[in-house]
Write a structure and sequence with these properties.
Layout lengths: L9 E2 L1 H6 E11 L3 H8 L3 E2 L4 E5 L2 E9 L3 E8 L2 H12 L3 E9 L4 E10 L2 H21 L1
Antiparallel strand pairs: 1-7, 2-6, 2-8, 3-5, 4-5, 5-6, 7-8
Length: 140
């Protein structure tokens, strides 16, 4: 029997740089067959995507699949999760997609509540990352 290699997740690397993230939630997605194939073949990009709430439903806007096609995809979450995201939106936070991970059968999206960082916060993040990298390099 041929062993199937687990597909790697698609990450939104800018999310941790641009936002202070909290309350991560794993949600499902309503996808068609070609969309699933593109995600499994890693032809998806989370850069510039965000989630919003319309009519008490969670939607992912701006997902790039394949060659520059922007998709709007419905997300599957519980009512309590959607209510928590609505409360966070009222407080001024953003719903940020962090990771798109294909499993054996399903494709899940990890979204988080993000509060935008100021320029000085981003500089501090870069400084801390450089210090950590330097200390790891000196240790080995």
């Amino acid at each position: 029997m041929k062993k199937v290699k687990k597909p790697a997740p698609v990450l939104n690397r800018r999310a941790h740089y641009d936002y202070n993230l909290s309350d991560k939630v794993e949600v499902g997605m309503v996808l068609t067959g070609p969309q699933v194939r593109l995600i499994r073949d890693r032809h998806a990009q989370l850069k510039g995507t965000y989630a919003t709430i319309r009519n008490h439903e969670l939607w992912l806007l701006g997902l790039t699949l394949g060659s520059d096609t922007s998709e709007n995809i419905k997300l599957l979450a519980t009512k309590s999760q959607i209510a928590a995201f609505e409360r966070a939106k009222v407080e001024g936070s953003t719903i940020v997609p962090v990771e798109l991970k294909p499993t054996k059968r399903y494709i899940k999206l990890i979204i988080a509540v993000g509060k935008g960082k100021k320029a000085y916060d981003k500089r501090q993040t870069i400084k801390n990352r450089d210090l950590d990298r330097e200390s790891r390099r000196l240790r080995y």
